[in-house]
Design a protein that fits this description.
Radius of gyration: 14 Å
Distance between the termini: 31 Å
């Protein structure tokens, strides 16, 4: 089941069930739909010439970055994830997202423009950014 929300004129966000229903091959949100949408709304936009539009977000609880998902369960151990990746695959106004697993998938490593912004805002330390950028183990 797909749940769609109209965000602003020309932007729709789709909550895809395969990232909520325990599908083994997919990372899973552990935050509610409202927080998923909020993470999308506050995400940083990056336009990749090859892939189109991508947005990257963090989830906050009490002004601190918090985990928003968990890795797919088909390749244990399951790990907590804290970066959301949002895509507009068809270059239309429909977006969807998932918890990004930068350790498992190179395409889930945010670009320097995004991680640099997070560092400037003091969301993440230089050491954490370095680990994320290298696809290495990094926890909150």
């Amino acid at each position: 089941m797909v749940q769609e929300e109209h965000i602003v004129q020309g932007v729709r966000y789709i909550h895809k069930s395969d990232h909520r229903d325990g599908t083994n091959e997919k990372s899973q949100w552990i935050i509610g739909r409202e927080n998923e949408r909020l993470c999308f709304e506050q995400s940083q936009l990056f336009i990749d010439e090859k892939e189109g539009k991508t947005r990257w977000g963090l989830h906050f609880e009490d002004k601190q970055i918090a985990n928003l998902g968990k890795s797919k369960s088909e390749s244990p151990p399951v790990r907590l994830l804290f970066i959301g990746k949002f895509v507009n695959d068809k270059q239309n106004d429909y977006w969807h997202g998932y918890p990004a697993d930068f350790e498992e998938n190179n395409q889930d490593i945010p670009p320097e423009e995004v991680t640099g912004y997070w560092r400037e805002q003091h969301y993440l330390s230089k050491a954490k950014i370095s680990k994320i950028s290298g696809g290495r183990k990094c926890r909150l």
